[in-house]
Automatic annotation (TrEMBL), chain A:
Residues annotated as signal peptide: 1-25
Pfam families: SBP_bac_1 (PF01547)
Sequence similarity: Belongs to the bacterial solute-binding protein 1 family.
Compartment(s): Cell envelope
InterPro entries linked to this entry: Bact_solute-bd_prot1, SBP
Organism, as annotated: Streptomyces yatensis
This protein's name: Probable sugar-binding periplasmic protein
PROSITE patterns xref list: PROKAR_LIPOPROTEIN
Function (record text): Part of a binding-protein-dependent transport system for a sugar.
UniProtKB/TrEMBL annotation, chain B:
Compartment(s) of residence: Cell membrane
UniProt key word Cell membrane: yes
Xref: PROSITE patterns: ABC_TM1
Identification of the protein by name: Sugar ABC transporter permease
Length: 442, 317
């Protein structure tokens, strides 16, 4: 019997060791000499022809400055692919990685998947507080760990159809939520059969970029309290935000008909985009939309999104996010990788040139005020939103964008009229977010 | 005395026999250990660990279990949807597959055409078939609702309506019924003709011939279809994910994450939730808990069905 027990113990120990061993991913190092020849692997998300051309031009400029560093870029890479590659490790994993969303930064930093950049900044004399705006630094760090840096930013505002406004007798874009409701109703046109020809402003959360956190930013909410606990139920703005959304939906014909109309829209990034085809008179979107508006058959312009009626002084604010870039934990060329990250994010001429090329908001203080920046007035509106002191970004969280997903799920129920007790629903939502955050902690 | 002298030789022979048997079994044993034993052991191990696939795992006791079973709001809908699909989809697929099989075996002319027509959809890749279905049933632009509208039927929103999303997936699975049709056809053609003739002589009609001749003969095949259908549906993933993603119309870009279950989690299945937890949130422990729950349910249902099958079959079967 003791022999059998010993054998069983050995098998279990061997199994545990095997499981633990398999669970340890590869680790990188910052021992490399950035002046020695090296080829870096850089994964990014850009896929449009003009965007790829712009990032390739940026890499060419970098290689000219650093002849010993070659960069092998791979485009159209999703966050999911980056995540899997960095967790699996291996020689094909990237050295420098980027993401189109700030949602996952908390997870990247807290898990150590993207390396802490503060030591690199100290080593090379980069004062981040002088280079980057505070909001952008906040969304690229988690609890003091600056594991990412902003590589251009995105600001959200309103695109509106000037022809439709003129036809409806509206002189200027709405500045308050009540003006938005009034104008949206005026601009909505129905067909004889009860369908829609045009919707004034569709608030439905599944429309293109309309995730609830973006419109909610006009209220400047606090998602978490000082104790780190979710506080959406305590946030007065939560109820106002949902009430506004429901009023917008009701005023324009109801959730069901609007959803049916939405399903007839073409792809967001195609010429069948609903704003471009005139099916929406006002539309929330990022600054890059301007690039896609060249084929528009109507006059259009941009403006900040409206703000709550009782906070008119905040008009001009908007939701901020952006592309972030960092160094993979598994990279064995971290010093060379830092040279690339530093060039892409902190070199003013590079940032301005890239921002102009892909119609994004620059992410450094110097670039934001650079005279070389694109002078297109529709783009300038977004630069103003980006610099507005009331503009906000989402707070980073340990489990990435999970709380945003929970908020979205809850919001889908509210917009559909399925949440009858908003207070209780919001309390439950807070509990869910707290449970998810606790679960993500070690 | 002679027995005692031969004992070592007998033991050697028995050992050789055992080694030979193990030798023959070894390919299966290796496969079983690597592809079933190790993953199962690993799943149980990680269900008690906090592990984000970057840092080393740490023991957290029952925390993952409590999280999944008590705090995760999507667990209930995912389990309900999976069980709903197991019951409705499997039952309808078996009934429909058997019906088509019966129909095709009784057709006198154009048999080849009908067999091909019913089998062809099964050959379509699941993603392509789902894309086509979502397009056809799109309430805003699809032709199906237009046609139904023209004949005075107020059509539902199909994949965009929580009440209709799962039935739409069932319709999609019925469209690709070709695999079951072929299996049932083989079974139906295998029923001895003499038994039908004898039943006819006894005055049996079509129903009685099916009830007393066909059904007993094809019962093992029906049970096979049910058991494999249950196991497959427990793993239902691709079609629900693709249909939800397409029907939602939400743009999926490099920075976005596909949230399965559109609309209102009505198409969220347990395997989707396992993927979401394990490979989107990197909550490995909770994903392992969910996998074990699914495994336990699949085992229980399969065991129940196999017992039922044993009761249904005669000794000769």
């Amino acid at each position: 019997m003791p022999r059998k027990l010993a054998a069983l113990a050995s098998v279990l120990s061997a199994g545990a060791l095997l499981l633990t061993g398999c669970a340890n991913p590869s680790t990188g190092s910052a021992e490399d000499d950035p002046t020695k020849p090296v080829t870096l692997k850089f994964w990014h998300g850009w896929s449009e022809k003009s965007e790829v051309k712009a990032i390739d031009a940026s890499i060419a400029r970098f290689e000219k400055l650093h002849p010993n560093i070659k960069v092998k870029a791979t485009g159209n890479v999703t966050d999911a692919t980056v995540n899997q590659a960095l967790r699996a490790g291996g020689s094909d994993a990237p050295d420098v990685v980027s993401s189109f969303t700030t949602n996952n930064v908390g997870q990247y930093c807290s898990s150590g998947m993207w390396v802490e950049l503060n030591p690199f900044m100290r080593k090379t004399g980069l004062d981040k507080t002088k280079v980057f705006p505070k909001t952008l630094l906040d969304y690229t760090s988690y609890e003091g760990d600056q594991c990412a840096l902003p590589l251009l930013a995105d600001a959200y505002g309103m695109y509106y159809n000037k022809d439709a406004f003129a036809e409806a007798g509206i002189k200027r874009p709405p500045r308050t939520m009540s003006e938005l409701r009034r104008d949206a109703v005026k601009l909505t046109k129905r067909t004889k059969s009860g369908g829609y020809q045009r919707v004034g402003f569709m608030p439905n959360f599944r429309l293109y970029q309309n995730s609830p956190d973006r419109l909610f930013a006009q209220w400047g909410p606090s998602y978490f309290g000082k104790d780190g606990k979710a506080r959406l139920a305590k946030e007065k703005a939560s109820k106002e935000f949902y009430a506004t959304t429901r009023e917008l939906i009701r005023g324009q014909g109801g959730y069901g008909p609007l959803e049916t109309f939405r399903t007839s829209f073409g792809d967001e990034m195609s010429s069948q985009n609903a704003f471009l085809t005139g099916k929406l008179a006002m539309h929330m979107d990022g600054e890059w939309r301007g690039l896609f508006m060249k084929g528009a058959k109507f006059k259009w312009d941009t403006a900040p999104l409206p703000v709550p009626d009782d906070r008119p002084e905040t008009y001009g604010r908007g939701y901020l996010t952006g592309t972030v870039v960092g160094i993979a934990h598994s990279s064995t060329h971290q010093n060379a990788a830092w040279e690339l990250v530093k060039f892409l994010t902190a070199d003013t001429d590079q940032v301005v040139a890239f921002a102009n090329a892909i119609h994004n908001v620059p992410s450094t203080k110097a670039a934001l005020t650079s005279p070389k920046l694109d002078s297109d007035p529709t783009f300038r509106a977004f630069l103003d939103i980006a610099q507005n002191r009331y503009s906000t970004a989402l707070p980073p969280s340990i489990n990435g964008g999970q709380y945003v997903t929970s908020l979205q799920d809850f919001s889908y129920g509210v917009e559909a009229g399925k949440v009858h007790d908003l207070d209780a629903g919001l309390r439950k939502l807070d509990d869910e977010i707290d449970a998810d955050n606790l679960q993500a902690q070690n | 005395m002679a027995t005692l002298t031969n004992a070592p030789a007998l033991r050697r022979k028995a050992r050789r026999e055992r080694l030979r048997t193990l030798g023959f079994l070894s390919p299966w044993l290796v496969g079983f250990t690597v592809f079933f034993g190790y993953p199962l052991l690993a799943t149980v191990y990680f269900s008690f660990m906090h592990y984000n696939q970057i840092e080393a795992p740490t023991f957290v006791g029952l925390r993952n279990w409590r999280y999944v079973l008590e705090q995760m709001p999507l667990f209930g809908p995912a389990l309900w949807n999976t069980l709903w699909l197991v019951v409705v989809m499997v039952a309808l697929r078996v009934v429909f597959g058997l019906g088509i099989g019966l129909l095709v075996t009784r057709i006198k002319s154009g048999v080849g055409f009908f067999r091909t027509a019913f089998y062809l959809p099964y050959l379509a890749p699941p993603v392509a078939a789902t894309v086509a279905f979502v397009f056809l049933l799109n309430p805003g632009t699809g032709p199906v609702n237009d046609i139904l509208g023209n004949i005075g039927i107020h059509a539902p929103n199909w994949f965009n309506d929580p009440a209709w999303a799962k039935p739409s997936l069932v319709l999609l699975s019925l469209w690709g019924i070709g695999d079951l049709m072929v299996i049932f056809m083989a079974a139906l053609l295998d029923v001895p003709k003499e038994q039908y003739e004898a039943a006819e002589l006894d005055g049996a009609g079509a129903f009685h011939k099916f009830r007393y001749v066909t059904w007993p003969s094809i019962t093992p095949i029906v049970m096979f279809a049910v058991v494999t259908g249950v196991v497959q549906t427990m793993q239902y993933y691709t079609q629900a994910l693709v249909a939800g993603k397409l029907a939602s119309g939400v743009s999926i870009g490099p920075g976005s994450v596909i949230q399965p279950g559109y609309p209102d989690h009505s198409t969220l299945t347990v395997p989707q939730l396992v993927y979401s937890l394990g490979f989107q949130n990197f909550n490995t422990g909770a994903a392992c808990v969910l996998s074990l729950v699914l495994f336990a349910i699949a085992m229980a249902v399969t065991t129940l069905l196999m017992r039922k099958r044993a009761g249904l079959l005669s000794a000769e079967d």
